[in-house]
């Protein structure tokens, strides 16, 4: 028997359906690998070992009665720790929720359960998904499986690191300004940030409601599409969710990409980017061109403003979304307090760490009387401008190729440098969230230091199938992508 | 008018809508349940939970807007009003800020000097907060059952110039909302809550003065008293050269005074912004028109006809029309009797239980009342009896000897006995305490087993007392 850990979803599915490999064997293989590797990588906050074993056992028992099983039946997965799971700790990697057990399931978790997934655990992240390093977690940092001295990216760093190090077959992350794509790029995995509304946000602990989107992180493009099939669709509990396109997200995978049109954004080329990242992107452009894809150069000047609009809008929404963490109904609360205002003050001062507090203050400021028009309203105008510019761009091309991050994974020691400098790192990822578009990060190349470099494909709204099609072709260019 | 000053009153009325479920989740809205039993992750503001707007709440708010002749904003949105308070689990209230669902309406009231138009500034949709319960152990408990109950806030222009006008407006507004069937409008249960904005000005000066806002007004009577007090307080303050400050004041029921709660400069900055969890509200014109077409009939339309046809007073018609079912019952029963006033009195006095009675039976009772065959107490008693089981009223009255005792000789004898038993009351009455007559009359009525003619008893007792002195 081949190594279970190397198998993709379809392969495992066939083995499970034919009863050649049991769900328990698969779960055991992954749990063993977690035990072996996570001491150093620290991708997980909670490993649900007992629940997973029980689940796998019951899946095996039910299998004898059931021949027609869903694709994710017995497939091990893990969730970013901002996705609510009934009866299991959901911490947002914050002291504020260090002991929080949600009384209900997020829609995505419900859907995955209905599809037969076995949950392995909950994954580390930056506190409340604010950050791009997975070093601001209350519990511990997560280390890059390719080099333990490097950051795994963030905020879905635990998800990326766990997938990359075979500690789960797939993971869900959330992406507000690049939090799926950037760690995917740093850890050599496939990360999809779907069109806003494709995946229900019900049960995702909100950072910025108009930007947040849950998405799959996997080792292959095909697996990614399969997981998106399972978690997407209109949800009556989330009024911002949308109907999914008919069929499967795998429908266009394997189709010829000849004569497709690919956009390249002129403004992005002018940014300060690590030369190895530039090379990787250029090689990808050349490769696509060789396959018969037409390259279109795009002029999108408003993208320069997207980053500012992003930090205003996301902080404004966060300041309000995080107000419910007041120490009253759940979460961290000091043992002693003099009155209600002190209860709020101590709970929030001690429950939140620096970065979260910075964003709450920033958001509170931009929404304040007298500043609202100057900041929030202006940011909304920029947002519409960016949307319009993308709409125009997609009249000329089917998808856009861009870098994910300006560099490869940075030293974990440098992760807490100047906040504004960190914010500026997100220039290639935030315009996608601002415009509510889908984008996928794909493994591109390895740097001289043997660190992964990803590329990003951005499409118009609801064009996930196109992105999977173009991404799959690129993934297959040199047969196998190796994993640690 | 007081010291040459007049007042201007604007009202903010919060009305709980009686939809089956809450405004953003499917929890029930019923009043009076065990604390924290009508709650879910959404209304408890669990992390990750999302609101979804209840269409029925929008429909009810539109009904109010249409009935009050408002313009409807076909496109509007929900906004977040951010502030920390323990009864507000999300630490923001979902409300409407710059674009309300309805605006620029009016409601006409009938004052002694003729019709007067009170302009409605806006009606917006929002969610209610929970309730704080302070117990004897000096603990504060939170009941989240009310969190997320749909509310409309109706804001008037400062067009009312006396407490009577405010009272007329509130009564009429309440009747309209009851007619629409969108709220119970029960002040004691908090489903109809009124804040009063009041300012004063010299009679010939048309510029409005600085206003204060009064909260904690839990009954129509308190509203009247609060307006009276606050009007004088403001005038006295100005005439003593102390300018009025814009502030929120709390009405205290015990002392019947208002007290400053907070000044305007301490006003919170609510940091309103559009709620990103909810999509814009976009209404089709056809949808609004269909609500307009299907709007229940309003009392204001029926009242003049009713007054003319049955020769009833304005007050009687208004009372009957607070509930369209009551009005319908009255009209059906009126086909069997001409004793309209007795019928109306009977229905109004038993409005909570009369709906189960057949119109013919009601007419019979009204007729008997009119002919003085039974007294009002017996009439009400008969209704209670009819609710238990049906019977022939005239026969029952005769068999059980429930007929009114009109014989003055008999009543005079009872009066003599009653006075014999109430020597103290007589003394008290002689000293000028006319209320002392009450127990004596009660005693006579008791001796008649409740079947005496109350007017005659009154006359006889008064005569006897005057004879004694």
Description:
With 484 residues, chain A is α/β, with parallel strands linked by helices. Chain A has one domain: Amidase signature (AS) domain (Amidase signature (AS) enzymes), CATH 3.90.1300.10. Chain A contains 16 helices and 13 strands. In chain A, strands 1-3-2-6-8-7-12-13-11-9-10 form an 11-stranded mixed sheet, with helices on both faces. In chain A, strands 4-5 form a two-stranded antiparallel ribbon. In chain A, α2 runs antiparallel to α3, α10 packs across α12 and α10 crosses α13. The radius of gyration of chain A is 21 Å and the shape is globular. In chain B, the strands form 4 sheets. Chain B has a 9-stranded mixed sheet. Chain B has a 3-stranded antiparallel sheet with strand order 5-4-15, with no helix packed on it. A two-stranded antiparallel sheet of chain B has the order 3-16. By secondary structure, chain B is of the alpha+beta class. In chain B, β8 and β9 form a beta hairpin. Chain B folds into 3 domains: 283 residues, no CATH class; 101 residues, no CATH class; 61 residues, Arc Repressor Mutant, subunit A (Orthogonal Bundle). In chain B, 38% of the residues lie in helices and 21% in strands. Chain B is built from 15 helices and 16 strands. The chains are: A alpha/beta (484), B alpha+beta (469). At the A-B interface, α10 of A face loops of B.
Short account of what is shown:
The complex is a heterodimer of chains A (484) and B (469). Chain A has 484 residues and is an alpha/beta fold.
Mean pLDDT of chain B: 93
The percentage of residues in β strands of chain B lies in 15-25%
Strand order of the largest sheet of chain B: 2-6-7-10-1-11-12-13-14
How many E strands of chain B? 16
Oligomer: heterodimer
Number of domains of chain A: 1
Descriptors for this entry?
heterodimer; A: 484 residues; alpha/beta; Amidase signature (AS) enzymes; eleven-stranded mixed β-sheet; 16 helices; 13 strands; globular; disordered C terminus; B: 3 domains; nine-stranded mixed β-sheet; three-stranded antiparallel β-sheet
């Amino acid at each position: 028997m081949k190594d279970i850990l190397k198998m993709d979803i379809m392969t495992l599915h066939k083995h499970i359906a034919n009863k050649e490999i049991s769900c328990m064997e698969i779960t055991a293989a992954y749990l063993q690998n977690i035990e072996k590797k996570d001491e150093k990588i620290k991708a997980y906050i909670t490993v649900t070992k007992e629940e997973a074993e029980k689940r796998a056992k019951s899946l095996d028992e039910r299998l004898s009665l059931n021949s027609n099983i869903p694709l994710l039946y017995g497939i091990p997965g893990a969730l970013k720790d901002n996705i609510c799971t009934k009866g299991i700790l959901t911490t947002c990697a914050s002291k504020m929720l260090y002991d929080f057990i949600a009384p209900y399931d997020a829609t995505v978790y419900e859907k995955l359960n209905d599809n037969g997934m076995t949950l392995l655990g909950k994954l580390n992240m930056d506190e409340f998904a604010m950050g791009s390093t997975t070093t601001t977690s209350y519990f511990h940092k997560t280390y890059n499986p390719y080099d333990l001295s490097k950051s795994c990216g963030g905020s879905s760093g635990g998800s990326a690191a766990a997938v990359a190090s075979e500690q789960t077959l797939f993971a869900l992350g959330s992406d507000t300004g690049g939090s799926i794509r950037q760690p995917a790029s740093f850890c050599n995995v496939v990360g999809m940030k779907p069109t806003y509304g494709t995946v229900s946000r019900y049960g995702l602990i909100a950072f910025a409601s108009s930007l947040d989107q849950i998405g799959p992180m996997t080792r292959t493009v095909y697996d990614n599409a399969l997981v998106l099939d399972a978690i997407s669709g209109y949800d009556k509990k989330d009024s911002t969710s949308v109907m999914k396109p008919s069929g499967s997200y795998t429908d266009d995978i394997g189709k010829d990409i000849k004569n497709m049109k690919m956009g390249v954004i002129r403004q992005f080329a002018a940014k300060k980017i690590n030369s190895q990242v530039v090379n990787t992107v250029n090689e990808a452009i050349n490769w696509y061109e060789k396959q018969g894809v037409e390259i279109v150069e795009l002029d999108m000047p408003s993208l320069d403003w997207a980053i500012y609009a992003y930090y205003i809008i996301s902080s404004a929404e966060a300041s309000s979304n995080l107000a419910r963490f007041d120490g009253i109904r759940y979460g961290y609360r000091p043992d002693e307090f003099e009155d209600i205002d002190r209860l709020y003050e101590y709970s929030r001062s001690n429950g939140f760490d620096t970065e979260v507090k910075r964003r709450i203050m920033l958001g509170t400021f931009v929404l304040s009387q007298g500043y609202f028009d100057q900041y929030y309203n202006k940011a909304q105008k920029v947002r519409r401008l960016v949307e319009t510019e993308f709409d125009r761009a997609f009249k000329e091309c089917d998808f856009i190729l861009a870098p994910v991050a300006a560099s490869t994974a940075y030293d974990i020691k440098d992760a807490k440098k100047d906040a504004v400098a960190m914010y500026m790192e997100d220039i290639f990822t935030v315009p996608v969230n601002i415009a509510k578009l889908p984008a996928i990060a794909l493994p591109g190349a390895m740097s001289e230091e043997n660190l992964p470099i990803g590329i990003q494909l951005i499409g118009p709204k609801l064009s996930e199938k196109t992105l999977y099609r173009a991404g799959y072709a690129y993934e297959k260019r040199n047969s196998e992508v190796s994993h640690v | 008018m007081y010291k040459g000053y007049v007042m201007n009153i604007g009202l903010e009325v919060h009305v709980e809508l009686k939809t089956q479920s809450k405004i953003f989740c499917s929890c029930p809205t019923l009043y009076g349940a065990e604390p924290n039993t009508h709650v879910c992750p959404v209304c408890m503001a669990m992390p990750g939970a999302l609101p979804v707007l209840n269409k029925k709440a929008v429909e009810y708010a539109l009904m109010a807007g249409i009935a009050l002749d408002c313009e409807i904003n076909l496109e509007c949105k929900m906004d977040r009003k951010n502030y920390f308070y323990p009864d507000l689990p999300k630490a923001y209230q979902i409300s409407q800020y710059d674009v309300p669902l309805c605006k620029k309406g009016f409601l006409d009231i009938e004052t002694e000097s003729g019709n007067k138009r009170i302009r409605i500034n806006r009606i917006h949709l929002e969610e209610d907060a929970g309730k704080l319960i302070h117990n004897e152990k000096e603990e504060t408990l939170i009941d989240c059952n009310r969190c997320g109950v749909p509310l409309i806030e109706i804001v008037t222009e400062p067009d009312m110039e006396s407490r009577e006008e405010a009272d007329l407006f509130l009564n009429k507004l309440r009747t309209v909302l009851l007619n629409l069937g969108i709220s119970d409008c029960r002040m004691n249960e908090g489903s109809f809550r009124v804040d009063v904005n009041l300012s004063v000005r010299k009679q010939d000066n048309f510029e409005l003065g600085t206003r204060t806002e009064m909260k904690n007004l839990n009954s129509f009577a308190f509203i009247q008293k609060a307006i009276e007090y606050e009007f004088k307080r403001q005038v006295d303050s100005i005439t003593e050269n102390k300018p009025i400050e814009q502030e929120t004041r709390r009405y205290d029921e015990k002392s019947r005074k208002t007290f400053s709660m907070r000044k305007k400069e301490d006003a919170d900055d609510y940091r309103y912004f559009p709620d990103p969890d909810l999509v814009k509200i976009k209404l089709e014109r056809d949808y609004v028109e269909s609500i307009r077409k299907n709007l229940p009939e309003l009392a204001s339309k029926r009242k003049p006809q009713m007054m003319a046809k049955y020769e009833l007073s304005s007050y009687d018609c208004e009372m009957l029309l607070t509930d369209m079912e009551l009005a319908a019952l009255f009209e059906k029963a009126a086909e069997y009797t001409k004793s309209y006033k007795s019928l109306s009195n009977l229905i109004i006095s038993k409005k909570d239980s009369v709906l189960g009675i057949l119109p013919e039976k009601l007419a019979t009772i009204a007729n008997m009342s009119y002919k003085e065959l039974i007294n009002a107490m017996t009439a009400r008693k008969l209704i209670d009896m009819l609710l238990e089981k049906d019977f022939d009223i005239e026969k029952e009255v005769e068999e059980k000897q429930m007929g009114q005792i009109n014989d003055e000789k008999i009543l005079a004898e009872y009066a003599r006995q009653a006075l014999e038993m109430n020597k103290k009351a007589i003394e008290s009455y002689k000293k000028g305490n006319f209320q002392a007559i009450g127990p004596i009359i009660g005693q006579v009525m008791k001796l008649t087993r409740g079947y005496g003619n109350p007017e005659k008893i009154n006359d006889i007792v008064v005569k006897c007392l005057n004879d004694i002195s």
